[in-house]
Amino acid sequence: MARRTFVAWGFCGPFIALFATFGVWPVVSSLSMSVTDITARDIRTPFSVDFVGVSHYTALFGDPVFRRAAVNTLYFVAAGIPLTMIIALALAVALNSGIRRAKALFRVGYFAPVVTSVVAIAVVWRYLYEPDGMINSALAVIGIHGPDWLNDPHWAMPALIVMAVWRHFGIPMVIFLAGLQSVPADLLESARVDGATRWQAFRNVTLPLLRPTTLVVAVLLSIGYLQFFEEPFVMTSGGPLGSTTSISYYAYQQFGFGNYGMASAASYVLVAAIALLSFVQFRIFRAKA
Amino acid sequence: MTTITASTTAATATHTASRSLRPARILLYGALALGLIATLAPFAWMFLGSVKPTGEIVAAPSAWLPRSPTLGNFGQLLSKQNFGLYFFNSTVVAASCVLGNLLFSSMAGYAFAKLDFAGKKLLFGLVLTMLIIPGVTTFVPLFVLVSNLGMSNSYLGLILPFVVTPLGVFLMRQFIRDIPDSLLEAARLDGAGEVRIFLRVVVPLCRPPLATLAILTFLAQWNNFLWPLVIAQTEDHYTLPVALALFSVGANGTNYGLLLAGAVTVVTPIVLLFLVLQKQFIQGIAHTGIK
Amino acid sequence: MFSSRVAKTLAGGAAVALLMAGCGRSDARSAEAPAGAAVDTQPANGTITVWAMGTEGELLPKLAAEFSKANPDAKVEVTAVPWQDYAKKVQTAIASGDTPDATMVGAVDLAAFASMGGLEKVPSGLVDQSTFYPGAVQSTEFEGAEYGVPWYVETRSLFYRKDLAQAAGVSAPKTWDEYGPFLKALQQHGAKWGLSLPTGANATWQSVVPFMWQAGAELMSADGKQFTFDTPDARKGLEFYQQFITSKLSNPNGPVSLGEIEPQFVAGSTAALISGPWEEGLLKSAGGEAFVKDKVGVAPLPAGPKSNASYIGGGQWSVFKDARNRDGAWKFIRWMSAPEVQKTWYGLSGDLPAVQSAWSEGKLATDPTLAVFRDQLTTAQSGPNTTTWRQVTAVLDAEFEKVAKGVSTPQAALKEIQQRASTIGTGE
């Protein structure tokens, strides 16, 4: 038995050593920063800062800019996750429906946005969203007068949500595709034989079997989407009128101001939110499964 | 966007295989193609933009097709001193992180999935917790650590912080857990040691999650900007994204031609990698995603 | 060496434990000399490592080669650093003590870097500060000492469509009173918007605060301990900014990203903008040489009740406390601030010299556009040098945006700015 333990540690030893050094240690440091008044000025003398307890955390919730950021983040998550999942699932179902021709092309094409560099693609999306840009030209064809997307406090967030969904549906699509491949074909066949419509078979057979896959997708998206940062960073700088400032963006700004304690506290609020949302999702999907 | 939503409803309606219904099939292909065009439109704009002179890129109203196509942006990019070196650095860093992740994550994943040792549950819990910590949180402490270890401005400093990731261990452990114990027991009865079992039985079965991990790691490291920026003290340790920012983003203006040409240069290798590995990738996700 | 670093890191871990035990900060800031130790006039020697941003970084090796000719025992190693996130790079370097000898610093960032304790004070007698433009010197000061030597400067003036002005029979405005009618005349000759103003994008304050300066506002009390935003003069300036938008001379949705405004200016839908010396190059690539020559006019900013003050930016040089070749670095910086070298650098890069006497001959003395910027530089100002200024500018940008979009009044905005800035404090 002792030998087995020895072998086990041999296998995970390298990982644990590196993980403890470069993963856990910085987290411990930053967590302790969040309860001190450390700023950029103290970084060379980290011993001489004051312990401030949870006052950063209370200050955060007293700051209207942070509260706005929290609401924006929730808005983004509440709209973005379902939208991404629906599109990813729909595409996965379509790609899995027995089409042969050009399947690989579709798969690669739909996955492509995942691999883009956000800075370059921001240039493109800004053009798409101009008042007389391509999206509004397309809307004009069907008689809709589109808004000035990125300058309108009501439409800037939806615009960023669409862009985020475009960038992120690829991986959930692949995960759903993989999940669908493990749904037994004969189960669907027998449902159809029993007179179920295609939609009914999908609702009553496929969807329940996909529940574990859905859980994984939901949790992965929650982790990613709660950290909503890149789109406002490159597209709107958090504006107009603060309508796209997210918690991550707020934390990034606080780091820029040198308020390391405050910035760390904001990040850990985010960590708590991710943990909470993941927990809730586990409860919902497990309970039904 | 409207086209995407349209395609999804159509796709949902015709979800199961039925080769008999020709109109439905044509509808499905049509919807998929429309969705694909909408998805790829920004890409097309990027590629077309990279062969436009800057004046045309920023022109209002903007046009799809270049009026006077030019390879000048790429020429300018390639003529930059050390461009080959930046490409090489990016490749070395990304490839090392991929190799490290594949090796250490599969070893640790095996231990977490199939071996017993004290503190296993606690450690794995820690790994799961670390999955949800945003990178911005730990940035400053990590930098102070790496530079105190004397590794700033070195390949080690660029690579080591990302050579293992919690995601990698999580993926590998999920996959290896599903390998039947009987397979391992049989090998043990044949007198094989754990190392031999790992190399001969586990690793060959792990190709799908390894491919997945390879793509995800490569993607993250190939596009990483902020870390290489702060850790590289001299230009000979710059990676591609840092060099591109240097050339294209100024204090008061942006060279959009160079930016788009650079983006094309950065994106192409990843698209190629995905093309090569996509089957394995999807299988890898299939096995880890479901359990 | 290596093990001592490991020990330092472990000590950092111990710090966490000590923190919990409540080992606090001491209030007394050690009194330091107002300037660094003097540097001799011997030629420099050894390797001097420096960071320079963007184009400056790409071109600096050419200038450094000249320095090596005069100082054969010295070698300057330049690392070009992207402008994007460069402040993070400098801050993390200071935090770890792992720095080069010297770095170029953007005007707004000096206070933040100096406050981290990472920069050396300028040695006494290194340069004669009175030879530089006053606004440039102002931006190197922090807590009563100088932490940088000005290198190049930039300021913003009024770019307008010369062809439209000619068609309308108007000439560039000299005062606030002439501003509106001038822009209106350009609008009547085809432009949708008279003047482009930022309305909330990053660094909106750099375009709006000058209106307050022009009205006579001072943003800090004389002792530098308090922000003074809520004053009648500041309000006058902000109301002037607001009326551009309310009288439809300016788009309430100003440009958000770099490169957005040039095509509109070229197309003629926006008739004027406020920008710096780099704008000519941008307009050339957006509209061509001929467009700039025939259709672009540049004039000093119109004067308000007090002055026509503009914002001054640019680059300066600072030496790190952890520099290995401190003397060599200061000698290199001293050399770069000589008028002759400043002229050479202008020739290489087009950056405007910070040293006034460098403008005495050649294109710098004769070019009419440069003459405009030269005039503008004599009154240009920089923002207050407090460590918290960056944080305050975020409040400014947000409140100015509210004024521009009509959801707040100048009075309410200034009250809010004053209140939030006081909470943030001056970092004292």
UniProtKB/TrEMBL annotation, chain A:
Pfam families: BPD_transp_1 (PF00528). It comes from the Bacteria. The keyword Transport applies. GO terms for cellular component: plasma membrane. The chain crosses the membrane at residues 7-28, 74-96, 108-128, 155-180, 209-228, 265-285. Residues 70-281 form the ABC transmembrane type-1 domain. Keywords: Cell membrane, Membrane, Transmembrane, Transmembrane helix, Transport. InterPro entries: ABC_transporter_permease, MetI-like, MetI-like_sf. One of its GO terms (biological process) is transmembrane transport. It is a multi-pass membrane protein. It is found in: Cell membrane. Its main location: membrane. Belongs to the binding-protein-dependent transport system permease family. This is Carbohydrate ABC transporter membrane protein 1 (CUT1 family). It comes from Kribbella jejuensis.
Automatic annotation (TrEMBL), chain B:
GO terms for biological process: transmembrane transport. Its main location: membrane. It is a multi-pass membrane protein. Keywords: Cell membrane, Membrane, Transmembrane, Transmembrane helix, Transport. Pfam families: BPD_transp_1. Residues 87-277 form the ABC transmembrane type-1 domain. The chain crosses the membrane at residues 26-48, 86-110, 122-143, 155-176, 197-220, 256-277. GO terms for cellular component: plasma membrane. It is found in: Cell membrane. Gene3D superfamilies: MetI-like. Belongs to the binding-protein-dependent transport system permease family. This is Carbohydrate ABC transporter membrane protein 2 (CUT1 family).
From TrEMBL, chain C:
Signal peptide: none annotated. The keyword Signal applies. The keyword Signal applies. InterPro entries: SBP. One of its GO terms (biological process) is maltodextrin transmembrane transport. One of its GO terms (molecular function) is maltose binding. Keywords: Signal, Sugar transport, Transport. GO terms for cellular component: ATP-binding cassette (ABC) transporter complex, substrate-binding subunit-containing. Gene3D superfamilies: Periplasmic binding protein-like II. It holds the Pfam family SBP_bac_1. Belongs to the bacterial solute-binding protein 1 family. This is Multiple sugar transport system substrate-binding protein. It comes from Kribbella jejuensis. The lineage of its organism: Bacteria, Bacillati, Actinomycetota, Actinomycetes, Propionibacteriales.
